[in-house]
Design goal:
Layout: E1 3-9, H1 17-30, E2 35-41, H2 53-56, E3 60-61, E4 67-68, H3 71-79, E5 88-90, H4 91-104, H5 114-127, E6 135-140, H6 150-162, E7 168-175, E8 178-179, E9 184-185, H7 188-199, E10 206-211, H8 217-227, E11 234-238, H9 246-252, H10 255-262, H11 274-284, E12 289-296, H12 306-319, E13 322-329, H13 339-342, E14 347-350, H14 359-372, E15 376-379, H15 381-393, E16 400-402, H16 403-409, E17 415-420, E18 423-426, E19 429-432, E20 444-452, H17 457-462, E21 466-473, E22 475-477, H18 482-488, E23 490-495, E24 502-507, E25 513-516, H19 531-546
Parallel strand pairs: 1-6, 1-7, 2-5, 2-6, 7-10, 10-11, 12-13, 12-14, 14-15, 15-25, 16-17
Antiparallel strand pairs: 3-4, 8-9, 17-22, 18-19, 20-21, 20-23, 23-24, 24-25
The structure holds glutamine (GLN).
Glutamine binds next to strand 21.
């Protein structure tokens, strides 16, 4: 039976709750325990799939096809435990389930209320798989005091009451602001945040205090005293150069020890932090630097491509180099020459995306990379753009485009080299979609097998010909054009097992040009960099030696 750790935040948002949760998960693993991490989000979207990456950052896709919060990406990158659909829930999902049950007549005769119907639904969710792990870490999105968060706070309060004493603990993250004028760290916002938490029946066992300045011992004592938390359980969280220092930094501050103490686990098993020391060493002691351009649309908010940036960092770690990422807005050269924007980079990556805006720029980026022999990695939309570029400029299909853009514009302008996929096979089932279906959850989502061509560059990179990768898209390269494109030199070296869906294309006469229909970035870890990213960065290093 799992022990539960509930993680909440106060004072301000964006304190790094997800990161603290992920790092704690890694530390518990280092002590020999099994863990699972969950995110409970108070917003009313059923899932983040329909939210703009500008607002909410990237959508993280799980193997079982859930569109989830980007914090699940942190969880996976730190623990290596593949997240599942049942590790992410929002108020929207909870309410829609409760309302569905109401319509079905499951609660016949009853008045449906937040307590107990909504809170019960949340508690049932938290319980899923509780027998599988030693520790279940549940992060509540948002900040204490938010109206939307109340049912979640109430549910975890009840949950701890339902369980045996000592089976659940509460960890709260706050901020200690620094007043430069008086040279002081202020503890009052933390006190108020804990007061708010206590007013809804939750007493934190651990306080994690974010601070830009060292927290003096007497301030730690004061926080403990005023917030009714043991002094050793007031943990400092300082800014870090790299997020991957977090496990070692939290360990140095005593977080994992405080958690085990709070559960009364004594003696605590000794931690083995070898992998995190190796990760830190690779980050802090690079032997060079490469510059990679990410040519995208959501370049103002780096969180929109979070997993890609992380996977590139991992690729750098595999090669012991620092990867410097420049975010290049594809729209800048939709109608202009791309060269001035792309010269000087050692590699170019075109990530996934939706909609036509910026796609002509992305096509030019693919052309630039092909002609100038710069390593290119195209992911999802980035692969589709590379195929369209090849079709237009090498295979002579001058009007090649994607049906996605014609659908959006409501006019037929392009030869549909990339078309709307309406039926495909998942496992041993056929999935069907219609044009105009609801937007949420209607894509080809989650993990699918692919078969790689023997002797191809990708088979070499993966070290085998059978792979599984995660997908999130509606459109697909049409195999009708395969012969023409292959004759032009763009080879289809990865296909779905039934041979119908192109998964990987590559220019074989190019130093490194690969497009993938899936999202390899979602499976990369600092201690196990994804082979495609490791090899892409290796190619960038090689290219940097030429220029
Ligand atoms: N918009 C494209 C599609 O739906 C690509 C999606 C993506 O890049 N994730 O097929």
């Amino acid at each position: 039976m799992a022990r539960f750790i509930f993680i909440t935040g106060g004072v301000v948002s964006s304190l790094g709750k997800g990161l603290a949760s992920a790092a704690l998960g890694a530390l518990l693993q280092a002590r020999g325990y099994t863990v699972r991490l969950r995110k409970l989000d108070p917003y009313l979207n059923v899932d983040p799939g329909t939210m703009s990456p500008f607002e909410h950052g990237e959508v993280f896709v799980t193997d079982d096809g859930a569109e989830t919060d980007l914090d699940l990406g942190h969880y996976e990158r730190f623990t290596g435990v593949a997240a599942r659909m049942s590790d992410s829930i929002s108020s929207g999902r909870v309410y829609s389930t409760v309302l569905e049950k109401e319509r079905r007549g499951d609660y016949l005769g009853k008045t449906i209320q937040v307590i107990p119907h909504v809170t019960n639904e949340i508690k049932d969710f938290i319980r899923i798989g509780e027998d599988e792990v030693d520790f279940m870490l549940c992060e509540i999105g948002g900040t204490v005091g938010d109206i939307e968060g109340l049912p979640f706070f109430e549910a975890i309060r009840q949950f701890a009451q339902d369980k045996a004493r000592g089976q659940c603990i509460f960890m709260h993250l706050t901020l200690l602001p620094y007043l430069a004028a008086s040279g002081e760290l202020k503890t009052k916002p933390t006190q108020h945040s804990v007061k708010e938490l206590r007013s809804i029946g939750l007493a934190p066992d651990i306080l994690v205090c974010r601070s830009e300045h060292p927290i003096p011992e007497r301030e730690r004592e004061k926080i403990g005293l005023f917030c009714n938390v043991r002094k050793d359980a007031v943990i400092a969280a300082y800014d870090l150069k790299s997020i991957y220092e977090a496990p070692l930094a939290y360990h140095a501050q005593g977080l994992d020890q405080a958690v085990l103490d709070a559960f009364g686990i004594s003696p605590a098993p000794k931690p083995d932090l070898t992998i995190w020391h190796d990760v830190a060493d690779r980050i802090h002691n690079p032997e060079g630097e490469v510059r990679v351009a990410i040519v995208g649309k959501y370049t103002q908010l780096e969180d929109a491509y979070k997993s890609i940036a992380e996977a590139l960092t991992h690729g750098g770690m595999a090669n012991r180099v620092k990867v410097r990422i420049d975010w290049v807005d594809a729209e800048l050269f939709d109608r202009a020459d791309a060269a001035p924007y792309l010269e000087g980079f050692h590699a170019i990556l075109v990530p996934g995306g939706f909609g036509e805006r910026g796609t002509e720029g992305k096509i030019k980026a693919a052309q630039f990379a092909r002609e100038k022999r710069v390593p290119y990695l195209g992911i999802c939309l980035g692969m589709q753009m590379a195929v369209i570029e090849a079709a237009r400029n090498v295979a002579g299909l001058t009007t090649a485009g994607s049906e996605e853009f014609d659908h959006e514009a409501g006019v037929k302008r392009f030869e549909p080299v990339v078309y709307h996929l309406k039926e495909w096979v998942q496992g041993n089932q056929t999935v069907a979609r219609k044009q105009g279906d609801a937007k949420g959850g209607t894509m080809r989502l989650g993990s699918y097998d692919a078969v790689l061509r023997d002797g191809s560059r990708v088979a070499d990179i993966y070290g085998g010909t059978a792979i599984e990768e995660r997908h999130r898209h509606r459109y697909e390269v049409d195999t009708k054009y395969r012969d023409k494109l292959e004759a032009a030199g763009l080879c289809f070296t990865g296909m779905s097992p039934d041979g119908k869906l192109p998964e990987i294309v590559e220019w074989t006469d190019h130093p490194w040009f690969i497009g993938v229909q899936f999202h390899p970035e979602l499976k990369s870890k600092p201690f196990a960099p994804h082979p495609l990213f490791a090899d892409f960065v290796r190619a960038a290093v090689e290219n940097s030696r030429l220029v």
